[in-house]
Amino acid sequence: MTKKKKQRKENKVNPNQIETISSNSEYVYRLRPLNFLTGEMFQELEKQSIYFAPFHELNDPMEGKFEITWKGNSINWSYLFNYYLLCLHFYVLKASFKPSADFSTFFTDFFPLYIVESDLNEEEQQSFSISKRRFFSNNLIVDLIKYLDIRNIMISKKYISVIFIFISEIALESVLYGQNESGINQQPFLIEITKMILNQEIFKLFIEMIEQNENIPQNDLNKLFESLTQSLYESDLIMLCKFNFHGNNINWFHFCSVFVDVFVKQLPFTVFPTWYSSSFFSKFPNKMTVWSNYANNHMGVCLIFKINNNDNIKSLSLTQINESKTIRTERYTFETIFYTNKKTPKIDYFALLNKRLFYVFKNNLTPTGKGDIDKNIFTKDKLDEFNEGFKFIQTTKTKDWEYEGEVRLITDNSLYWLEDTQARTFKYNFNDLNGIVFGMNTPIKEKIKIINIIVKKCKDNGRKDFNFYQASYNENKKEIVYIKLNISEKLITSDEL
Fold it and tell me: Burial of 406 by CB count in 10 Å (0-12 exposed, 13-18 middle, 19+ buried)?
């Protein structure tokens, strides 16, 4: 047998090879575009890194969405208004140091999600106490809290902004008053402006109407909120245009409109931890569209990871350098994605306060500062509801994505700060990387680069073999398969590389 024929025989593909590996539960697959894998900015292959993305970066715009509702008593609503007032205090004080700030980024650069009164210095605490007394002694605020308590109505995320728009001007005046009285932010001119523009006619009419119609059905109430939402939104747009006389610089009206919008969007994250995920395929991705979407039109590659599978629990060991610069290595469990068009569960905001916030806010829960709390607010049933709802949110996509067969690793910021992208870029063990499949359009230059990186890592880690494959389209099966390239052993043992 000639040398060439012998080599061809060695490279002959086992027709069952792709099926054997694809159905093996010991492996997961991850498609990567070249700019992430070998590009100068990310160097994922060189650094052995896996990035955990926040849900808003995922490809399904419906992912991470959930229906959150507010239905509580006077303690609950007092806490929430107190939290709103505290966040507003933070931003008003911030504006005094940045009077020329651009309003379009002023409220979104940083949001004090877990701020508590103990975070304030002594002067600020004195100022906030004055603001708090003034705000909660306002008759309209007293009537609103009383109504929300007695009626115990359910308000959806779609309409919660109406409540905060109602209280926004009273809250702003109270904060400015407190800061002016305490001397930490003396701006009497702003207070006079706020007093002049306080237009609470709609607020008053709302209170009067709901007091006169105590038994108004929830559906009719929703219609009322919908009408108010549209009316207030249009009014805000008009006012923003009128008051934009200083260009994009921050002005008082932004605290009654833009801030409310930002605050409402951040509210769910005060009870749900921000979560991040990294996506894999449970089987070899053999569809053309998948490679086009996730591997840069077939120019990228597919990484094959050998995973741990104890008691049918699949996991991958990852190392993270956390905010204190300490290294921790943990096994992260793969979660199977379920595909359904079922509506997301309704989550009760106030029922989650004990779960997520009570340990933080226990001394600042109510305007009295006594830390009062409804002892029945968080039962075992509510805990189960929270866990099931959160799991549903993290592991569910619409049926449009069912062809992917995704599994994912998930983490959240409940224990570690993961806002920074570097903090959620984890490192995998090189020995867990079983192989790489080159795409049908992977440039030869990139193949050589990838092979050289892998060969060096094999030598550094004492590995004598690594699996390289080439993807190709199988006309009979009408799908992508991969062919093994018998090159690694020869290259690893070579002294020339």
Answer: buried
- Distances from the Cα of 261 to the Cα of 35, 55, 236, 250, angstroms: 36, 20, 11, 15
Closest CA to 254 of 29, 388, 92: 92
The pLDDT score that the predictor gives to residue 489 is 79
HSE-CB at 289 with a 13 A cutoff on CA atoms is: 3
Most confidently modeled range among 220-224, 248-252, 375-379, 397-401: 397-401
DSSP 8-state assignment for residue 200: -
In sequence order, which ranges of 11-73 are alpha helices (DSSP H)? 17-22, 34-37, 44-47
Residue 453: C-alpha distances to residues 29, 43, 122, 438, 492 (Å): 19, 11, 57, 14, 11
Average pLDDT, the chain: 79
CA dist 410 to 338, 391, 461, Å?
Answer: 15, 10, 28
Q: From residue 225, how far is each of 73, 104, 149 by CA, in Å?
A: 19, 27, 17
- At residue 204, the pLDDT reads 67
Contact indicator for 483, 468 with CB cutoff of 8 Å: no
